[in-house]
Specification:
Length: about 210
């Protein structure tokens, strides 16, 4: 296999591993766009493998650049293969640069995916402080800031929500709400509509 072909194979492998590494956060955004948010947590099982996939992506891209930039051997110069003498765009450094940039954006996706979730702006009005309640929901399936933003966006669509803070690190969502305008089952349903699962009901729901 020629250096150009080897470099291209490594580049395509880098794209694949970069996408798979962040697919657990890409899926919720795609699901939101498609209007099928219930599949958002489908690939959350990939998260434990993310560090290895990131490492593999970096390795194959470094190898691709090495193949692209290393000096040709005398044997390769003597061969003067036609595909090496007249490289196409797909065999060029420009294409490899684009691949590297795309892979970098994919690997960093979990850190900016929350930008895709609009947080609704609304006036919060409540009659009495005694109507305000705060509950913590244990949620499984969240793996990044994008997952948090997804849950917060859905819960904020309910009437009576004062504040909502989801945390994938703590595997929970803390909701402050006006109990005269919404209730615990409605909030739980909003969370689970994203595809993430409320592990167990709150004490008040069990009553």
């Amino acid at each position: 296999m020629t250096p150009n072909k080897t470099s291209n194979t490594a580049a395509y492998t880098g794209i694949f591993t970069a996408v798979v590494a962040s697919i657990c956060c890409i899926t919720p955004v795609l699901a939101l766009i498609a209007g099928t948010s219930g599949i958002a947590s489908t690939f959350s099982w990939v998260e434990p493998f993310r560090p290895y996939l990131i490492a593999l992506t970096i390795i194959v891209l470094v190898f691709a650049w090495f193949q692209k930039l290393r000096p040709k051997t005398q044997e390769e110069l003597d061969c003067a293969c036609e595909d090496d003498a007249k490289p196409t765009f797909w065999q060029s450094k420009q294409f490899l640069f684009i691949v590297t940039l795309f892979a970098g954006l994919m690997l960093a996706f979990p850190y900016y995916s929350n930008l895709f979730y609009a947080q609704p702006t609304k006036d919060i009005v409540y009659v009495s402080q005694s109507n305000i309640e705060t509950q913590t929901f244990e949620v499984e399936g969240m793996t990044c800031a994008g997952c948090e933003a997804h849950v917060e966006s859905e819960v904020n669509n309910l009437d009576g929500i004062i504040s909502v803070k989801a945390s994938y690190e703590n595997a929970n969502t803390i909701v402050e709400f006006d109990k005269t305008k919404t209730d615990l089952p409605a909030i739980r349903e909003a969370i689970e509509s994203t595809g993430y699962k409320v592990v167990k009901k709150t004490p008040k729901e069990n009553k």
